[in-house]
Amino acid sequence: QVQLVESGGGLVQAGGSLRLSCAASGRTVRNYVMGWFRQAPGKEREFVAELTWRSGSTYYAEDVKGRFTISGDSAKNTVFLQMNSLKPEDTAVYYCAAKVLFVGGYDDWGQGTQVTVSS
């Protein structure tokens, strides 16, 4: 069990950038997989990006490849999502999530942070 708090959302123009942060507390992130998800109004929650701390491996949803980068600072138990070349369709509430390596799915979720991209 970890507690997750997202921050860094806001309003940006299309083509702009934001960096989201997710601070984890309660447990070290070393043995976790960290993920970013998003949910736009009226749409289902969708996967955005994932980081496996132990291996450093990452993968991304197809529509954010080349624009978004997930990274982490294990000393601070914090994961980031750098979002560049933002599009209006990126507008959503972004959620940080965590799952134990090799065990189940995503169990712990943050409260979300709003990202709004204007055209």
Number of strands: 11
* Largest β sheet strand count, sense and barrel closure: 7 strands, mixed
Averaged pLDDT: 94
Total count of helical runs of at least 4 residues: 0
Query: Helical amount among residues, as a percent range?
Result: under 10%
Oligomer: single chain
- Based on CA inertia axes, which overall geometry fits? globular
Unreliable stretches (pLDDT < 50, length at least 5) are: none
Structural class: mainly beta
Query: Between the first and last Cα atoms, what is the distance in angstroms?
Result: 39 Å
Task: Give the amount of beta strand, in percent.
Answer: over 45%
Order of helices and strands: EEEEEEEEEEE
Indicate the radius of gyration in whole angstroms.
Answer: 13 Å
Characterization of the model:
- This protein has 119 residues and is mainly β.
- It has strands at residues 3-7, 10-13, 18-25, 32-39, 46-52, 58-60, 68-73, 78-83, 92-100, 108-109, 113-118.
- Strands 2, 4, 5, 6, 9, 10 and 11 form a seven-stranded mixed beta sheet that branches. A four-stranded antiparallel beta sheet has the order 1-3-8-7, with no helix packed on it.
- The mean pLDDT is 94.
